[in-house]
Amino acid sequence: METKVQQVDEAPPPEAQPIVSQPPPPPLSAQMVCGSCRRLLTYPPGAKHVQCSCCQTVNFVLEAHQVGQVKCGSCTTLLMYPYGALSVRCSSCSFVTEVRDHNMRPPWSVQQGQPTPPSNSVH
């Protein structure tokens, strides 16, 4: 008696397989520019301070929601400053730019992507 053997594919063809996307892994390092010598610094995520290996300046690490941006009043370089600062000195030309109206942090609801709730004022 003759026996037939059938081969069975163990996986469906590639076009029939679902594509599962995975979130990217967290970064292994972060970068910032030294506020004194402008050297690019690499540091582990979560660090609060980074000391520059070139000029030994200790730089504060601020998260995106803790930083404002304004253009230098002299050379128009984009400057970053911590919220609450009254002015910022440009590291390129040393001009001091007053922050003024740019220093207001958006409401927490805006930072979280939620609409600002209506005020319940009584007249």
Describe the structure.
- The chain is mostly beta strands and 123 residues long.
- It is built from one helix and eight strands, in the order ββββββββα.
- It has one helix spanning 108-111; strands at 30-33, 40-43, 49-51, 58-60, 67-71, 78-82, 87-89, 96-98.
- A two-stranded antiparallel ribbon has the order 1-2. A two-stranded antiparallel ribbon has the order 3-4.
- It is elongated and about 85 Å long.
- The relative contact order is 0.11.
- The model has no long low-confidence stretch (mean pLDDT 77).
Low-confidence blocks of residues: none
Q: Shape, please? A: elongated
Q: What's the N-to-C terminus distance?
A: 99 Å
Write out the strand line-up for the largest beta sheet, numbering strands in chain order: 1-2
Helix/strand order: EEEEEEEEH
The percent range for helix content is under 10%
Computed structural class: mainly beta
Radius of gyration: 27 Å
Q: Give a count of the beta strands, DSSP E runs of length 2 or more.
A: 8
Labels describing this entry:
single chain; 123 residues; two-stranded antiparallel sheet; 1 helix
Topology readout:
Layout: E1 30-33, E2 40-43, E3 49-51, E4 58-60, E5 67-71, E6 78-82, E7 87-89, E8 96-98, H1 108-111
Antiparallel strand pairs: 1-2, 3-4, 5-6, 7-8
Task: Give a short overview.
This protein has 1 helix and 8 strands, in the order E-E-E-E-E-E-E-E-H. With 123 residues, the protein is mainly beta.
